[in-house]
Amino acid sequence: MEIGPLLALLAALSFAANLVSVRRGIILGGKSSTATAVSVFTGALLYLLILPITGDYKLLGSVSWQAIALLAIAGIINFCLSRYLFFSCVRLIGANRATAIGRTDIIFAAFFGIVFFQETLTTTLVLGSLGIMLGATLVNLVKEEGVYKFQTGGAILALISSLCGATSSLLVKSAMKDVSSPYLATAISYGAAAMVWVIILAVNKQQRMDALTLNRRSLVMFMLTGVFAMTGHLFRYSALARSPVSVIQPLMGTVVLFTFFLSFLLNRKIDVFNWRILTGTVMVIISIFLIFI
Predict the structure, then answer these.
(1) What is the pLDDT of residues 124-138, one digit of tens each?
(2) What is the pLDDT of residue 87?
(3) DSSP states along 47-109
(4) What average pLDDT is seen over the chain?
(5) Which residues have a Cβ under 8 Å from the Cβ of 206 and sit 6 or more positions away?
(6) Phi, psi (5° rounding) for residue 148?
């Protein structure tokens, strides 16, 4: 049995646990910005421990400054901006809805691939993209006084977050032509994001006070968020190193299903569950498989 698909499923499970943890941490009293800062610092510290073990830090001298700059910018966009927006979305509409809408990053990534890398526009890509959009719309409908309404605020945050994530992936793809180690590349991105948060905490008194007065239970949840996000990236990179993208990416899409089940097990009283979310979640997964298989 190939280990790549198993690693992809473990990555999806880790990212789902990441979202369930941040949802609980925010409900316990933490803020989206504090969750982002704690998770970034946790991930950066863990990578500082990993690089000496793998020995990949020795490769830093062979990486061009252009690649380092691209990875740093990608890290700031993804781990600071995109993560903050997505955590804010989780706070507003719950992990289940946010995760399904967040899969629109695949559509943005496909668009960038066509525009910048001359990738082919196929019928399955169009149909899969439409399926993802329909599924994302379905999970975000709420029934008020007998009328279905679309939750605009949370959806906009998720879409902007997805756009930022896809932009970050575009930069990483360009940088990885010059970087042989995905661990080193991710560490550079995390390091840049951590430095941005150091500056934010230094100049913004309110952010600093939010971090210093964070209750212990939220702190633990946000640290777990960082751990799960970091392990998710490790599993994802390891899976991509062993199996084709066409195999790994659909399996990564199961994060929406893992999020649904973990939320049901752990956050049943603080998240949203109904037939629209389940149907939309399944629709998103099927659409992802349609695009990549």
Answers:
(1) 888 888 888 888 888
(2) 94
(3) HHHHHHHHTGGGGGGGS-HHHHHHHHHHHIIIIIIIHHHHHHHHHHH-HHHHHHHHTTHHHHH
(4) 87
(5) none
(6) -85, 130
Beta bridge partners of 143: 148
Query: What is the Cα–Cα distance from 58 to 288, expressed in whole angstroms?
Result: 37
Top mean pLDDT of 37-46, 163-172, 261-270 is at 37-46
Using alpha carbons only, give the angle 87, 27, 18 rounded to the nearest 5 degrees: 45
For the chain, the C-alpha Rg in angstroms (whole number) is 19
Q: Is the pLDDT of residue 246 over 70?
A: no
Please give the backbone phi and psi of residue 120, each rounded to the nearest 5 degrees, phi first.
Answer: -90, 135
Conformation bin of residue 118: beta by default, left when phi > 0, alpha when psi is -120 to 50:
left
Q: Are 144 and 152 in contact (CB under 8 A)?
A: no
Question: How far is it, in rounded angstroms, from Cα 90 to Cα 39?
Answer: 15
Residue for token pair 């603080």: 270
